């Protein structure tokens, strides 16, 4: 009986079959039989095999019709084999020199095993570096022979059949055969490992797999893709019948559905029947999900949850967003310069500093927003933690005295980014920032979403083009450990547009704490500092950014508005932060506060807010002061940017669409009447449930001090809060 039987299906590879057979016959270890499986005699591959058989008695061709497919050809070869161990080799692959000798030596050390897994090399058809995809999987396996329970990640479904040696007697005793149809390796490998008792690994390459130019036939579009689910169901049913342990059922389940999701996420593979494929996969998922199974982290975990719930529409939307990500091209900054990169890499090898926190806001615009509020509270509640605020060059003046800072891009900035245990940002750190094990990333966000965000932007061309790579965006999301939310609406949106495995912290926005803690004297001081005349009605006008425009446009003649709205009206103009460097200057009754570092102080100074679709309305609502929506281009904005809810159906106050309408609600006082107050109350109920003045404290205690959620200060009910007082009572029109 020969040591090895090498079975080589050859359908469709007659031109390359000789190279495969040569690689076997050239082996230094000669105790084998070579079984080419060809079509009927007289076919091109059969003629090639016949010539080899004439020259070497170890070559014993057999025949199988093409209709039997790969599974039928292999099964025919198995029936004809007489060796102690079976090896499979595709007709266009090769055995590496010394492969059989290495297998024999390994088996001599381990003794008889049912399955001997080995490594293989994937060689690109044209150019590129070869890969060894089996190596990471085999690296964690025990050294000697072992039962499958000791290496539950070796499920048999993640490796091709030709990446192992199979004991022929074991195959016969188990009645194992390649299941008919495509993806037969999944069925064969999964069933074999479910029945195996002794397994071993060989950590060296045995087969060199030559990747086809057109890629794997299994990746081509067609109805055969549905057969993947046949193989998955076959293995899962067998595993269920055996009562597989949780240690083994979890990895088996995860690897099988990794293949399923890979197909479901590539619509090109399924020209038709995508919904049916997803529906059947969802049924299998729910039926066979192991007790206590937890989906993986990141985007893949989101796909698991959508499959479990049968949410095909949401899955298709995510799939479309990821596809759009591949077409986007904007890059995120990385460490620049060789010396900087080398220094950063060196600092990454140093241990994390358990008492170092790094903060950044708006890509370094200054000491502002939620990160600044958390930083200030951390200095009070966690003084042992050293805090460093990152700002871009030229914004150092925004950092208060006594606050340690570093300039973005500097060696010092990259050093603290490498060493910090806590990283806090309201946008995202640069793509080059590495998420180290043990570090904690807190994403604070910087507003409640009305416009589309994250992957939702992929369907809006103007926005998507400016956003850059959605794949890179999701990679940055995967660094988040916590994501701050100001209301349940935000939580739902963040979960959809930034799919990840982070923890939602529904604590409110720390920057909004001031709206419940500032006094009347503070408000008077802020107004005086901004130049608001005593006794004036200060109207904050804060329009949002328009993605379809370049540069800032006020969208309103503000001097004319002041003249029409009332003699006591002044306007505080605050453009979107994209335009805070233009310096429009203050004229007449219009005070430009765009460059003022604190949007919270600007809101506290205002007696009323006029905005279009800016997220500032959600923050300002915490003050319970009048809000007017100026929606002169709502339809255009909704079509070009997209929105996640209909503001017109639930506004925080009166909706105006022309300059005359806007001036009139201020002139007659209806901007602050009972109807306006009712709209604002409903809006506050929906969007201001957590902002009670203690958000920063909850964040510091939970994230920096590690206190459990039940130990945090409870949220003060909305009806019991006392917002910061306005400068003067607003007229109420009955």
Compact description:
The chain has 734 residues and is of the alpha/beta class. 38% of the residues lie in helices and 14% in strands.
Task: Describe the overall structure.
This protein is α/β, with parallel strands linked by helices and 734 residues long. The chain has 27 helices and 21 strands. The strands form 3 sheets. An 8-stranded mixed β-sheet has the order 3-2-1-4-7-6-8-5, sandwiched between helices. It has a 7-stranded parallel β-sheet with strand order 11-10-9-12-13-14-15, sandwiched between helices. Strands 18-17-16-19-20-21 form a 6-stranded parallel β-sheet, sandwiched between helices. Helix 1 (14-25) runs parallel beside helix 2. The radius of gyration is 33 Å and the shape is elongated. The N and C termini lie far apart (102 Å). Mean pLDDT is 89; it is low at 325-333 and 729-734.
Report the oligomer.
single chain
Structural class: alpha/beta
Poorly predicted runs: 325-333, 729-734
The beta-strand count equals: 21
Query: Approximately what portion of the residues adopt beta-strand conformation?
Result: 5-15%
Mean pLDDT: 89
Name the overall outline. elongated
Radius of gyration: 33 Å
Distance between the termini: 102 Å
Q: State the helicity in percent bands.
A: 25-40%
User: What is the spatial order of strands in the main beta sheet?
Assistant: 3-2-1-4-7-6-8-5
């Amino acid at each position: 009986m020969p040591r090895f039987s090498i079975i080589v299906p050859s359908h469709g590879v007659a031109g390359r079959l000789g190279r495969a057979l040569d690689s076997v016959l050239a082996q230094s270890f000669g105790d084998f039989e070579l079984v080419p499986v060809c079509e009927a005699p007289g076919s091109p591959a059969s003629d090639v095999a016949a010539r080899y058989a004439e020259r070497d008695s170890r070559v014993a061709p057999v025949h199988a019709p093409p209709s039997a497919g790969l599974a039928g050809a292999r099964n025919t070869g198995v029936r004809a084999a007489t060796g102690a161990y079976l090896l499979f080799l595709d007709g266009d692959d090769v055995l590496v020199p010394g492969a059989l000798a290495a297998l024999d030596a390994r088996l001599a050390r381990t003794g008889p095993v049912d399955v001997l897994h080995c490594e293989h090399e994937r060689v690109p058809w044209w150019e590129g570096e070869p890969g060894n995809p089996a190596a990471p999987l085999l690296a964690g396996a025990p050294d000697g022979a072992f039962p499958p329970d000791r290496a539950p990640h070796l499920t048999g479904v993640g490796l091709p059949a030709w990446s192992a040696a199979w004991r022929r007697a074991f195959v016969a005793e188990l009645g194992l055969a390649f299941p008919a149809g495509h993806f037969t390796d999944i069925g064969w490998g999964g069933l074999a490992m479910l029945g195996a008792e002794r397994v071993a690994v060989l950590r060296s390459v045995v087969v060199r797999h030559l990747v086809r130019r057109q890629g794997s036939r299994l990746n081509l579009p067609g109805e055969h893709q549905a057969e993947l689910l046949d193989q998955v169901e076959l293995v899962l049913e067998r595993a269920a019948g055996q009562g597989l342990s949780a240690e083994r059922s979890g990895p088996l389940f995860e690897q099988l559905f990794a293949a399923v999701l890979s197909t479901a996420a590539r619509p090109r593979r399924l020209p038709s029947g995508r919904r049916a494929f997803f529906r059947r996969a969802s049924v299998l998922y729910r039926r066979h999900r192991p007790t206590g199974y937890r989906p993986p982290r990141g985007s893949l975990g989101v796909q698991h949850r959508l499959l479990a719930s049968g949410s095909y529409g949401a899955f298709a939307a995510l799939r479309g967003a990821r596809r759009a990500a591949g077409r986007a091209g904007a890059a995120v900054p990385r460490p620049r310069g060789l010396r900087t990169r080398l220094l950063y890499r060196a600092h990454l090898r140093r241990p994390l500093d358990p008492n170092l926190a790094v903060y950044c806001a708006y890509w370094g615009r200054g000491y502002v927003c939620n990160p600044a509020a958390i930083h200030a509270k951390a200095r009070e509640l966690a003084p042992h933690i050293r805090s460093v605020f990152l700002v871009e060059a030229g914004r150092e003046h925004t950092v208060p005295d006594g606050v340690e800072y570093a300039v973005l891009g500097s060696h010092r900035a990259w050093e603290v980014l490498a060493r910090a245990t806590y990283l806090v940002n309201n946008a995202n750190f640069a793509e080059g920032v590495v998420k180290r094990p043990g570090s904690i990333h807190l994403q604070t966000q910087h507003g409640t979403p009305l416009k589309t965000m994250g992957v939702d932007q992929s369907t809006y061309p103007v926005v998507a083009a400016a956003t850059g790579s959605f794949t890179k965006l999701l990679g940055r999301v995967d660094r988040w450990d916590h994501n701050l939310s100001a209301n349940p609406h935000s939580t739902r949106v963040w979960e959809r547009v930034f799919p990840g495995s982070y923890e939602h912290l529904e604590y409110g926005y720390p920057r909004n704490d001031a709206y419940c803690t500032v006094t009347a004297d503070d408000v008077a001081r802020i107004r005086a500092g901004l130049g608001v005349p005593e006794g004036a009605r200060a109207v904050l006008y804060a329009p949002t950014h328009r993605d379809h425009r370049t540069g800032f446009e006020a969208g309103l003649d503000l001097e004319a508005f002041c003249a029409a709205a009332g003699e006591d009206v002044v306007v505080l103009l605050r453009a979107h932060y994209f335009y805070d460097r233009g310096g429009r200057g203050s004229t007449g009754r219009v005070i430009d506060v765009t460059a003022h570092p604190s949007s919270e102080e600007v809101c506290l100074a205002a007696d009323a807010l006029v905005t279009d679709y800016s997220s500032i309305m959600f923050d300002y609502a915490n003050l319970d002061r009048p809000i007017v929506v100026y929606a002169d281009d709502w339809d255009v904005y909704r079509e070009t940017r997209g929105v996640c809810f209909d503001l017109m159906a639930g506004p925080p106050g009166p909706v105006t669409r022309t300059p005359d309408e806007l001036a009139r609600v201020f002139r007659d006082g209806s901007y602050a009447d009972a109807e306006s107050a009712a709209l604002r109350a409903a809006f506050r109920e929906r969007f201001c449930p957590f902002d009670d003045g203690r958000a920063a404290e909850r964040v510091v205690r939970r994230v920096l001090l590690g206190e459990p959620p039940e130990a945090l200060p409870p949220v003060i009910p909305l009806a019991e809060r006392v917002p910061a007082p306005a400068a003067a009572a607003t007229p109420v029109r009955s």
